[in-house]
Amino acid sequence: MTRSPTPESVSMLPEAENVDLAASPRFECGRTVFARVSGSPVERSVRVSLPAAAHPGPGTGGVVRIEPSQPPRQNRRSIEKVTITMKISGNTVLVAGGTSGIGRGLAIRLHEAGNRVIVAGRRRELLDELVAAHPGMDAETFDITDNTSIRRLSETVTAKHPELNVLVAMAGIMHDEKVLDPDSLEVAERTVATNLLGPIRLIHAFAPFLVTRPEAAILTVTSGLAYVPLPASPTYSATKAAVHSYTESLREQLRDTSVQVIEIVPPLTRTRLRGDATDNERAMPLDDFLSETMSLLESEPDARQILVERVKGQRFAVADGTYGQVLAMQSGRTS
Ligand SMILES: NC(=O)c1ccc[n+]([C@@H]2O[C@H](COP(=O)([O-])OP(=O)(O)OC[C@H]3O[C@@H](n4cnc5c(N)ncnc54)[C@H](OP(=O)(O)O)[C@@H]3O)[C@@H](O)[C@H]2O)c1
């Protein structure tokens, strides 16, 4: 999850590498993918962007030759970009929005994986339950719609846990809105304050501290709906698209720092985000989502996005030419 430049291993990079596509479960034609390089002195992942023409055939696997874009000896910044390594334990992680659902589940998984975890949210009783059930966890109350509360959280957590190096901006709300219903405006404004302004304020409060840490990460949380909106929840979908865009800019602004920026993109998942959806058959079981997410965090060392299989239909709808179909389906239209 956090960056750890290892320039020595880079010096072993050959001028070009053979990547076994059949052995690389992450290979996807024409996209930026992560491929495990085998047969080299150090097993590691490289990021490759292949044109469709380079692919030996869908599903067939094969071997392609990857030319490094820059010889490693020339530019230290490019060296560090290819040598980011995932660290899934030993971090101090703040899950901001971890009293329930995905945040709570991720906090527990990270705690079990050997991280120091601090959970934050509004509901004190849920925080107390979590800390009581998981000795070693810590908790703070905060409201992501209130900048004073965010600043207080930042001061408290960095004072109590000066080794903090990972921020997960998880808090979010989702409600239906009708543009012709005047009551929906309040819902829309609250959604923007929570889902968009909230993470921006949170990142402003924590980023200056995180850049002082030798290895750090900021994880934002968007949604498959960032890529194809759910018309019943227009502002929710718009805030998630905006957080995706913000995350892309954030990563560029922090590219010369120790802070890795990762976007978690959940699909419809069984939580209580939108009322009681815990038994929605179309939604991904929470445990499955958490297992796949933890496994991706571990296996994709310089991940920009965490994409479980279930979300790829939405994430790549434009590239796949299925955007209209997916939007129609999410609108409840048949054509
Ligand atoms: N479940 C899905 O299908 C799905 C799909 C895509 C993306 N996501 C995203 O995943 C994230 C977690 O959602 P979830 O599904 O786990 O729903 P959830 O169980 O309702 O969790 C939402 C979390 O956000 C916190 N939160 C909400 N408003 C807050 C506020 N004003 N201040 C501080 N914390 C606040 C809640 O804590 P308190 O209420 O205690 O404050 C809770 O811990 C959200 O960003 C959501 O958009 C979920």
Automatic annotation (TrEMBL):
Gene Ontology CC annotations of this record: membrane
Database matches in InterPro entries: NAD(P)-bd_dom_sf, Sc_DH/Rdtase_CS, SDR_fam
UniProt KW Cell membrane keyword: no
Gene3D superfamilies: NAD(P)-binding Rossmann-like Domain
Keywords annotated in UniProt: Oxidoreductase
Lineage summary: Bacteria, Bacillati, Actinomycetota, Actinomycetes, Streptosporangiales
Residues covered by region (Disordered): 51-76
Signal peptide residue numbers: none
Alphabetized GO MF terms: oxidoreductase activity
Family: Belongs to the short-chain dehydrogenases/reductases (SDR) family.
Name listed for the protein in its UniProt record: Short-chain dehydrogenase involved in D-alanine esterification of teichoic acids
Organism: Thermostaphylospora chromogena
Superkingdom to which the source organism belongs: Bacteria
